[in-house]
C-alpha cells in the first residue's frame, strides 16, 4: 500500500519541477558567423603521379574586436596534402590542417580579411570542412573554382 501513496506524490513533484523549467533563449538565426572563409581554387592540373591545385583562401573577422595571433584549423576529407603555402605558417597531420599568420598578417581587424595561398596535392573536390578560428569560432565557408 505504501507504493500507492508514493505515486501521486511523484506526479505532483514532477508537475512542480516542470513548471520551474526555464527555456534557454533561442540563438539569433540572423546573426553573422564570427568568421567567413572563402576557399577559391584558381588552378588545377595533373602531374605524372598526382593531381594538384592552387587555392586562394581569405579569412574575414566578423566580430567587433581585432583577433590577434590568429589560428585557423580545418580538415581535408579527400586525402589532400599541402605541398606549400604562401602568407602563413602551416602544419598538417593526416587530414587536419593548422595555419597561422606571419608577423605582417598576424592580426585580423574587424571586416578586414587576411589572405593566403595553398599548393595542394590531391583531388580538387572543394572538400575542406570544419573551419574553426581561434579554436572557438566556427566559420561560414564559401567554395568556388
From TrEMBL:
Pfam families xref list: CBM_2
SMART domains named among the record's database cross-references: CBD_II
Q: Which domain of life is it from?
A: Bacteria
InterPro entries given for it?
CBD2, CBM2/CBM3_carb-bd_dom_sf, CBM2_carb-bd_dom_sf
- What range does the record give for the signal peptide? 1-26
- Keywords carried by this UniProt record: Signal
Record-annotated CBM2 domain positions: 28-141
Q: What is this protein called?
A: CBM2 domain-containing protein
Question: Whose protein is this, by species?
Answer: Salinactinospora qingdaonensis
